[in-house]
Amino acid sequence: MEIETNRRKPSLLAAAEGDEPQAVPYLKRFTVFNVAQCDGLPEHFPAAAAPLPERETIPQAEALVRSSGADFRIGGERAFYTLAGDYIQVPPQPAFFQQIDYYRTSFHELGHWTGHPSRLARDLSGSFGSKVYAREELVAAAFSATASAYTHNR
């Protein structure tokens, strides 16, 4: 007994049968190991991650953050400004791929900080995707760009 199989592409098969082609999602399982757990690997595999670079300080940028009076906290894995607590938090500088991004991010969050009701009283109520949120992101981006140019050209 011979079984006939149709080896055409699924989209062609669906079209031939009058159906619309559809994607069929599926999960695939992989076993993953940390390279440090493996023996006998070729030399081109790194044995350990490269250490984080030392902190590169820019005195003018540090002075700007300090003189703002903002409650500036270093730690965690993400950068944010919280209106409720009125503080800025950024990851440690060595966590950034490029050290300068630490200051760019710090200035971005400092831009949000200026919108607090006790300072410039901007509308910080916008949720992600709203016009109010987009406007506030533009303000923070402009603040970051201006502060970066000011502190890096001194």
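^ that was protein a. below is b, sequence first then the tokens
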Amino acid sequence: MTDYPDSPGVRAGSPDTAFEAADDAADAAKSREAMALKFIRGRGLYGATADEVADTFGWERYSSRPRLSTLRAQSKIVDGGGRREGASGRRQAVWIAAEYAPPLEREQGEFWEAAE
């Protein structure tokens, strides 16, 4: 399975069990991505952190991050620039839907390019 971000990814050289697990997880991942995107869109410019997404749906904290990574790779969400404290006490990125991102300005870097 190498069609990330459209399906859960597997690193080159991984054992065959990793590919089987990715195939099994694909439907659940798509569902969770849709749920996370709807939630983040619904929060507008306030956005959401990975922990906030996980807490909203009762997911393990570690399980929201791959879904957000995929949404970012698909340019559906972008780093909104804000930071909020997560459950670990560390600051987390606040993700916003790409349609809420400021207008593109090339010299401002990767954040702005991700919204294209």
